[in-house]
Design goal:
Layout: E1 12-15, E2 20-22, E3 31-36, H1 43-61, E4 64-69, H2 74-84, E5 90-93, H3 97-102, E6 107-109, E7 123-125, E8 128-132, E9 138-143, H4 153-166
Parallel strand pairs: 3-4, 4-5
Antiparallel strand pairs: 1-2, 1-5, 3-8, 6-7, 8-9
Length: 178
């Protein structure tokens, strides 16, 4: 389990047209929103990433970078980028399943062709959303076992505004006896 205020696992993936993304090398003032998505086969992911694409400039205005990452290969990642008309949002691909597990993501096995007629990969990660500080410590994290009921990016922006204004620390850091 990832613990707020502690270092996150490493994250290094290839991106479409932006080279290698290395979380440890990010220089944004307030960190990075890392959105792990299921892949091209997921219509809910396409809608979700469309919202993040639209709000990426808002995150940037607050000193926060964004990236969407999946276990999909380059071709499927490119197809997703085209589907959501990604311009501002970085799209990372080729996330190893072992790395997905390090991040606490759930792994699912294929159930065949989805409702939009795209074959699921044999294995893929379920969604996760993380806000990681510039120092690579966890500020916020949410993971799902299914594609449904994800945090809204507009609410994350409002929370970020509050956290900036009040210098609000990451919570959930206690690991002692209970």
């Amino acid at each position: 389990m990832l613990i707020p205020r502690q270092r996150t696992p490493d994250l290094t993936v290839k991106t479409l047209s932006r080279g290698i993304f290395d979380l440890a090398g990010q220089t944004s003032e307030r960190g990075t929103v890392v959105c792990f998505y299921r892949g091209l086969h997921c219509p809910i992911c396409a809608n979700y990433l469309t919202e993040l694409e639209k709000l990426t400039p808002e995150f940037a205005a607050r000193g926060v970078d964004t990236i969407a990452v999946s276990t999909d290969g380059e071709d499927r990642a490119q197809a997703m980028a085209e589907k959501i008309e990604a311009k501002a949002l970085r799209i990372g691909y080729g996330l190893p399943l072992a790395m997905a597990r390090e991040w606490g993501l759930y792994i699912s096995a294929s159930r065949g062709t989805t409702s939009i007629g795209i074959e699921e990969p044999a294995l893929f990660s379920e969604p996760g959303l993380f806000m990681v500080t510039q120092e690579c410590s966890l500020y916020y994290g949410s993971v799902q076992t299914m594609p449904f009921v994800r945090p809204h990016f507009s609410e994350l922006l409002k929370a970020l505004d509050f956290a900036i204004a009040k210098d609000y620390p990451a919570r959930g850091e206690y690991t002692g006896p209970v």
